[in-house]
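Project outcomes to date are best conveyed with an example. Our students and postdoctoral researchers have been running inverse folding experiments weekly, and each run begins with a structure described purely in tokens. The record below, which covers 244 residues, was selected by the lab manager from last quarter's runs and is presented without edits.
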């Protein structure tokens, strides 16, 4: 019996005359699935917060010192908060909220920060205001500091520094029908691989506007927009990227 051939995913890689490597962008993905994944991660994070409460009140015990258990719970809490937030932000770039509803737009783009506050602030307040001396002063101070650091790290990682609205995405998709190009760590997409802002970039990614935005490249290079006479109304613009 002949062996079945395994399906292979072929990634298109091209070389331009100036030596740049152009890679085909990844598929956009499913916003609903990403949001479900985010919610699951956040629920797990809240479970770790509850576990922390149980540890603090000696309802359950681990074969670890109290402080080590608290720090371990906070670290796991932080990990799942951040993973959930990254999934949620990815979903927002695929299916962004409308600015016509400012409340939803704010909540949708700050959901990770809100969950982060829920996951850490009650715990910090509990330890800080404890009058029963569950922990000695030194241990209590360390636990509070670790909690505050986790809250700050989680908040910074969860905040969407580059949000886009459904109107801005629709405007970009309507104005640009061809392929666009971007770099791995940039925040801007370009309509030409020969854009001067990409001169120092050896590897470019190629795809449509939808793929670029899904990869967190939410702004159109201003130089490309001017060169191609692209109407900028409703489209997020940026000067461009150099040396990426």
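After processing, the design step wrote out the following sequence:
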């Amino acid at each position: 019996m002949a062996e079945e051939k395994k399906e292979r995913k072929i990634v298109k890689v091209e070389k331009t005359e100036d030596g740049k490597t152009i890679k085909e962008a990844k598929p956009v993905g499913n916003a609903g699935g990403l949001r479900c994944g985010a919610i699951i991660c956040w629920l797990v994070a809240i479970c770790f917060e509850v576990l922390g409460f149980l540890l603090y009140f000696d309802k359950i015990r681990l074969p670890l010192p109290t402080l080590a258990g608290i720090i371990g719970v906070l670290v796991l809490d932080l990990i799942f908060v951040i993973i959930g937030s990254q999934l949620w932000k990815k979903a927002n770039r695929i299916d962004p909220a409308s600015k016509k509803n400012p409340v939803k737009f704010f909540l949708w783009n700050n959901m990770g920060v809100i969950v982060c506050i829920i996951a850490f602030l009650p715990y910090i307040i509990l330890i800080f205001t404890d009058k029963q001396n569950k922990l000695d002063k030194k241990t209590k101070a360390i636990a509070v500091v670790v909690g505050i650091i986790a809250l700050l790290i989680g908040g910074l990682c969860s905040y969407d520094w580059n949000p886009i609205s459904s109107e801005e995405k629709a405007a970009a998709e309507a104005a640009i029908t061809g392929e666009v190009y971007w770099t791995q760590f940039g925040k801007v997409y370009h309509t030409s691989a020969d854009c001067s802002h990409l001169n120092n970039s050896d590897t470019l990614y190629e795809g449509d506007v939808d793929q670029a935005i899904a990869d967190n490249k939410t702004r159109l290079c201003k130089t490309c927009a001017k060169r191609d006479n692209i109407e900028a109304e409703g489209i997020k613009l940026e000067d461009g990227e150099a040396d990426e």
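Residues 222 and 239 are 5 Å apart (CA to CA). The mean pLDDT is 84. The training component of this project remains on track.
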